[in-house]
Amino acid sequence: MTSSARLLIVGPQGSGKGTQGARIAQALGVPAVSTGDVFRANIQAGTALGEQVKAITAAGNLVSDELTGQIVRDRLSEADAATGFLLDGYPRNIQQVNDLDAFLTDRGESLDAVIELSVPREESIARLALRAQEQGRTDDTDEAIAKRLAIYESETAPILDVYRERGIVDQVDGVGTLDEITERITAALTARDITRPATV
Ligand code: ADP
Is the Nucleotide-binding keyword given for this protein (predicted)? Predict the structure, then answer.
């Protein structure tokens, strides 16, 4: 039995990775660490960090690797992430993969699985349009969506090749009901013997 659950969920904008990531993290009893959520919370609260990233995120650009990496390392150093965590939105490019590797290797840790949530482009665009109406996210403008999808294709999708070479990627069909998709992810993790880690 694997005694850790160090996970990453990857998928294009509108794939539902935030929703599914939160569900899976909850089921496994590990913290969901979403860089996008951290930035949004800071923008909302008007912190210095929020001020720093506000314009960048609204335009659909990436925050610097240094700043994002520091935020993730700080969060993963908290006690509740000792045996597991679910990363959502980080790493998002090869440099961030290398930064995360260095951090985890230093601690004698590594990712146990990477969930690739697949949805057809038209489906994710339709979902984003709906989310723009419902939530009014500042980065759900047509322009910022196009920018984020382009960055996903050019910078984020390639990180899956790195993890695929390590044999830790599970591709999951992201079209279906919320429960169906959660069930598919759970089945993939169970097949890897990844279950709720024992608390330390
Ligand atoms: P989405 O996946 O829909 O683009 P996220 O909530 O993951 O939304 O991210 C929102 C924004 O936060 C990104 O467009 C980017 O500006 C910033 N961000 C999130 N994660 C990272 C990251 N790993 N590196 C750089 N910027 C990031």
Answer: yes
Residue 17 assigned to a binding site:
yes
112 within 8 A of 87, measured Cβ to Cβ: no
- AA letter at 165: E
Look at residue 200 in the predicted model and tell me its pLDDT: 57
Spatial strand order of the sheet with 32-34 comes to 32-34, 84-88, 5-10, 113-118, 169-173
User: Which residue is associated with the tokens 């990627």?
Assistant: 169
Is 83 assigned to a binding site?
no
**Rounded distance, CA 46 to CA 43, Å?**
5
10-residue stretch averages of pLDDT, the chain, 200 residues long: 87 94 98 97 96 95 98 97 97 98 97 97 89 86 90 96 98 97 98 87
Atom of ligand 1 minimally distant from the CA of 96 = 23
Which residues contact ligand 1 via a Cβ below 6 A? Answer: 13, 35-36, 39, 56-57, 60-63, 68, 89-90, 92, 96, 139, 148
CA of 59 to the centre of ligand 1 (A): 11
Type of residue at 182: T
Domain 5-191 is found in CATH 3.10.20.30 = no
16 is in an annotated binding site: yes
C-beta of residue 5 within 8 angstroms of C-beta of residue 111? no
Helix (H, G, I), strand (E, B) or coil at 10: strand
Q: What is the pTM of this model?
A: 0.94
